[in-house]
């Protein structure tokens, strides 16, 4: 399997491609990473060095890959944080180029916009770009609860609300939706839910809540879910496998007291999670 991953990148730590590429490789996937930025570390530290690339850089790299004659072998395109609409347009152009070479290619868009408690943290225009262009072009989207509400204008307080929001998102274009963190009035205080839906139904995995504030987990779970879905063709199966791996990864990170997610040290969690969570139809 070959996946083109267009995301941000950091030299130290694990967010963006630095969080998504290795788990996919550990699962036996050949990954073609294109970096939208290259920073010394993630911005959560408050200070960083590095460079933001523009859409023309992505176009140039895509042209080079195309010249190798390999785009027809690309099974999927994964995108994450988009620093500007210019980057977004270049990503959608890359998706179109790959689909032209291989119409079966799937596009997974992690619509990074914001989060509960932090609000919107992307540049002006990005939420609109996600809603109007990126999401309709995607086969799979992986929002968190905040992004799900923003993209659908549905306030999610109950499981029924979550169903409505997910179906509204599926009506917008993507046939598969993964909600990477979900808290409704049914979610126990010591737990967190993940939800996924496709044409086979809607499914939930509930895991214990891990009290940890870490960057990069969303990037990793989107990548894991995408790989498992491409292999299994089932949102339920992909949800169970990805949720189990991320739970193990976060648990190991919490136990180590690490400021950075333990992508390398806990890599066995990607292949053989230490605890398995079974999806349930909801």
Commentary on this structure:
- The chain is α/β, with parallel strands linked by helices and 282 residues long.
- It is built from 9 helices and 12 strands.
- It has a 10-stranded mixed beta sheet with strand order 3-2-1-4-5-8-9-10-11-12, sandwiched between helices.
- A hairpin with a 3-residue loop joins strand 6 and strand 7.
- The two termini are 31 Å apart.
The radius of gyration over CA amounts to 17 Å
Total DSSP helices: 9
Structural class: alpha/beta
Average of per-residue pLDDT values: 96
Distance from first to last alpha carbon: 31 Å
**Reading side by side through the largest sheet, how are the strands ordered?**
3-2-1-4-5-8-9-10-11-12
Secondary-structure element order, as H and E?
Answer: EHEEHEHEEEHEHHEEEHHHE
Query: How many beta strands in the DSSP annotation?
Result: 12
Q: Which shape, going by the Cα principal axes?
A: globular
Give a quick account of the main beta sheet: strands, pairing sense, barrel closure: 10 strands, mixed
Residue share in helix: 40-55%
Runs in which pLDDT lies below 50 for 5 or more consecutive residues are none
What portion of the residues fall into strands of 2 or more residues? 15-25%
């Amino acid at each position: 399997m070959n996946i083109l991953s267009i995301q941000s990148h950091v030299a130290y730590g694990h967010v963006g491609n630095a969080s998504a590429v290795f788990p996919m490789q550990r699962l036996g996937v050949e990954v073609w990473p294109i970096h939208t930025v290259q920073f010394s570390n993630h911005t959560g530290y408050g200070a960083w060095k590095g460079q933001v690339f523009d859409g023309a850089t992505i176009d140039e790299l895509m042209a080079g890959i195309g010249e190798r004659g390999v785009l027809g072998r690309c099974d999927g395109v994964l995108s994450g944080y988009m620093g500007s609409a210019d980057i977004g347009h270049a990503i959608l152009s890359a998706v179109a180029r790959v689909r032209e070479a291989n119409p079966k290619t799937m596009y997974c868009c992690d619509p990074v916009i914001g989060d509960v408690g932090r609000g919107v943290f992307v540049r002006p225009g990005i939420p609109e770009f996600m809603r109007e262009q990126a999401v309709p072009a995607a086969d799979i989207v992986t929002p968190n609860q905040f992004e799900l509400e923003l993209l659908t204008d549905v306030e999610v307080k109950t499981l029924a609300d979550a169903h409505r929001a997910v179906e509204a998102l599926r009506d917008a274009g993507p046939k598969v939706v993964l909600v990477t963190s979900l808290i409704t009035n049914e979610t126990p205080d010591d737990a967190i839910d993940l939800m996924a839906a496709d044409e086979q139904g809607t499914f939930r995995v509930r895991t214990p809540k891990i009290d940890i504030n870490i960057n990069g987990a969303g990037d990793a779970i989107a990548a894991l879910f995408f790989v498992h879905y491409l292999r299994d063709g089932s949102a339920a199966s992909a949800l169970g496998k990805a949720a189990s791996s991320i739970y193990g990864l976060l648990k190991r990170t919490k136990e180590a007291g690490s400021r950075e997610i333990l992508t390398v040290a806990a890599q066995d969690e990607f292949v053989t999670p230490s605890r398995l969570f079974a999806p349930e139809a909801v």
